[in-house]
Specification:
single chain; 189 residues; alpha+beta; four-stranded mixed beta sheet; 4 strands; 51% helix
Length: 189
């Protein structure tokens, strides 16, 4: 896995553009990307404690920054929690940090990982790709932004099912081609 911060962030941006926005997996992502309100951070953490410190720092930054300036943060961490099960276990620690900082209901953390696997699915099931990113990533979201987005998009509950249909239509080969294009787009940018 590449750990060069410039490459990591370029590939992550290409994934957001081509996959998240390009496949419309998140109908709310386009506006914040176009308005440059997504903060992309490549953590140099090499252990869970350092990642937790980086997560806490990013939560403090978001707390003290206007949503018009930074709506959301993608905290990418290519050197730690590269194993999905370890990453999945860390999510409990991340949620505990929200509680410890008294930020439950203010922020939530979405998770993305190259090996993401939903419970009761096979690792090769293309539906897992809805949460497969180039690198392990914690997505810090403002609850108020989610509430506004859902109010503006009354069909929000149907997004996940629509994403599964999109990825099944794309198929494993199409997914592999799209991933390769994201890497190429990152290199070409």
């Amino acid at each position: 896995m590449n750990t060069n911060p410039n490459t990591v962030l370029a590939e992550t941006r290409a994934w957001v553009d081509s996959v998240v926005i390009g496949l419309n997996l998140c109908p709310f992502a386009r506006a914040v990307q176009v308005n440059n309100q997504i903060r992309y951070v490549c953590s140099n953490a090499t252990n869970a404690d350092a990642l937790l410190a980086a997560l806490r720092d990013e939560l403090h930054l978001l707390t003290n920054t206007s949503p018009q300036q930074v709506e959301t943060t993608l905290l990418v961490h290519p050197q730690v929690l590269t194993d999905f099960l370890d990453f999945n276990d860390f999510l409990d620690i991340a949620d505990a940090a929200l509680e410890d900082l008294d930020l439950v209901g203010v922020f939530q953390i979405a998770s993305f990982h190259p090996q993401y696997q939903f419970a009761d699915t096979d690792t090769a099931d293309v539906s897992n790709a809805t949460n497969r990113s180039p690198y392990p990533t914690l997505h810090l979201l403002r609850e108020a932004s989610i509430d506004r987005a859902i109010a503006d998009f009354p069909e929000a509950a149907k997004i996940f099912a629509a994403n599964i249909v999109t990825l099944q239509a794309l198929g494993p080969h199409g997914w592999a081609v799209l991933q390769a294009r994201c890497r190429k787009d990152a290199v070409d940018s």
